[in-house]
Design goal:
It is found in: Plastid, Chloroplast membrane. This is Sugar phosphate transporter domain-containing protein. α4 crosses α11, α6 (115-122) crosses α9 and α12 (268-290) packs antiparallel against α13 (296-325). The chain contains 13 helices and no strands. The longest helix is centred in the middle third of the chain and has 40 residues, at 197-236. It has one domain. It is mainly α.
């Protein structure tokens, strides 16, 4: 984002010193915060689903807290709200629609199966990216990239066959989220605007929130009113229930904000590697904290899949760098 990075540069210009000499410290801090917030989000999110299994409602809360955060940020002028018009809305709407669909289906998956397994399936996203690039955009994907995806597909298949928490609902929803996020990235390339990333994310969150509310009301509304909310309050009490929902929404928003800011600071290769490591952390921590039992085959499959994603990310980023270098 143009305006955004200028702002960061302006801040850095004012305070020469430690951060100026060692930009890696700042980048390292961004990565640490991104991982930390992401792990906390995933764990708190699953803890909520363990006593309140309503992923549509919780997804709406994630987006709602983010939108309130963005509106407050605009109100104090950090960042200044970028003007929006019909043309921009038309560009951002498909991105927000894919964001909403990807977010809700991810959450249905998190609620239904183990977090570690949901993230293993989500490691297939690059495969859908490659397929869409080749067959939707009609751009050739190099053979080396396709070959690097073979272990990913193999690993996820192995892990799925012996996953103890396996369910088709969880599996299919994670797959739909892969497809949604792939389309989201295609549409967001088309929607590249002069608007800074913070503003873009704010508008996307607002549209996605509006999109998510009707299905949540239709699909979960009746059960929530009859017994869902009362059950949760009976189990953990009103205060914990409300604060859990508020915090999970806050962590969701902050980790997305930090991920975006990290994206702007680093080369494609660094970011790709960062993304793979993030999954390793989330899968590892969730297995430890929830004491998930995993079979040896699922463990090996997950490792093969992650290794494949790492290889894929490396090759893809190398290709990006060559393009830039030209």
């Amino acid at each position: 984002g143009g305006a955004h990075s200028h702002k960061i540069r302006a801040l850095e210009a004012k305070s020469p010193g430690l951060l100026e000499k060692y930009p890696a410290i700042t980048t390292g801090f961004f990565f640490f915060m991104w991982y930390f917030l992401n792990v906390i989000f995933n764990i708190l999110n699953k803890k909520i689903y363990n006593y309140f299994p309503y992923p549509y409602f919780v997804s709406v809360i994630h987006l709602l807290v983010g939108v309130v955060y963005c509106l407050l940020s605009w109100a104090v002028g950090l960042p200044k709200r970028a003007p929006i018009n019909a043309t921009l809305l038309k560009l951002l709407f498909p991105v927000a629609l894919c964001h909403a669909l990807g977010h809700v289906t991810s959450n249905v998956s998190f609620a239904t199966v183990a977090v570690s397994f949901a993230h293993t399936i989500k490691a297939l996203e690059p495969f859908f990216n490659a397929a869409a690039t080749q067959f939707v955009l009609g751009q050739t994907v190099p053979l080396s990239l396709w070959l690097s995806l073979a272990p990913v597909v193999l690993g996820v298949s192995m892990a799925s066959l012996t996953e103890l928490s396996f369910s088709w609902k969880g599996f299919i929803n994670a797959m739909i989220s892969n497809i949604s996020f792939t389309y989201r990235s295609i549409y967001s390339k088309k929607a590249m605007t002069d608007m800074d990333s913070t503003n873009v994310y704010a508008y996307i969150s607002i549209i996605a929130l509006v999109v998510c509310i009707p299905p949540a009301l239709i699909i979960e509304g009746p059960q929530l009113m009859q017994y869902g909310l009362n059950d949760a309050i009976a189990k953990v009490g009103m205060t914990k229930f409300v604060s859990d929902l508020f915090l999970v929404g806050l962590f969701y928003h902050l980790y997305n904000q930090i991920a975006t800011n990290t994206l702007e600071r680093v080369a494609p290769l660094t970011h790709a590697v960062g993304n793979v490591l993030k999954r390793v952390f989330v899968i590892g921590f969730s297995i430890i904290i929830f004491g998930n039992k995993i079979t040896t085959q699922t463990g090996i499959g997950t490792c093969i899949a992650i290794a494949g994603v790492a290889l894929y990310s490396y090759i893809k980023a190398k290709i990006e760098e060559e393009k830039r270098g030209r």
